[in-house]
Amino acid sequence: SSRDEDDINDVASMAGVSLNDENACILATSSELIGTVIRSCADEPFLPSAVLQEKILNIGKRHDIVELNSDVVNLISHATQERLRGLLEKLTVIAQHRISTHKGNDSYIVCSDTRAQLRFLENLDHLEKQRKAEEEREMLFRVAKSRSNKEDPEQLQLKQKAKEMQQLELAQIQQREANLTALAAIGPRRKRPLDS
What we know:
By secondary structure, the protein is mostly helical.
């Protein structure tokens, strides 16, 4: 009875396929291929070997490398091919993302004003630079105010830089005040009447 249940559960026997016959047929037809390596395509280098080897040797002269194995050239060629393949895959994903439309999504606003987009990106870049400059300025002022007994050359250099920055800011404030005073002395600007 257990043999009958195995036959019912065996899909191959239900389909009328004998696994023993199939194995014998496979072994008979491919017996000459057993133990051999089959490659789907020839192992050709991606870059020209002579040019690549010359370039590697030129770079290697700095590190006292005077000869190369051909496997090294093939390896670098394949690595270059894989790197380029990865970059192209990433570029493909980016290009597909750029052309995908977000019309159905309310979070996105379709905008064709390139100048406004560039202005927005420039403003973001300007704000990031301002933030970094402010962080550096605060760090320099903290170093300048610190009174440590050990005066290492790096800390002395930072203190000098902070002092120069303070003097520059003071000069800018004085210049701005002088400009405002000069403008106030000149008086309000009058528009010239247009000649008809």
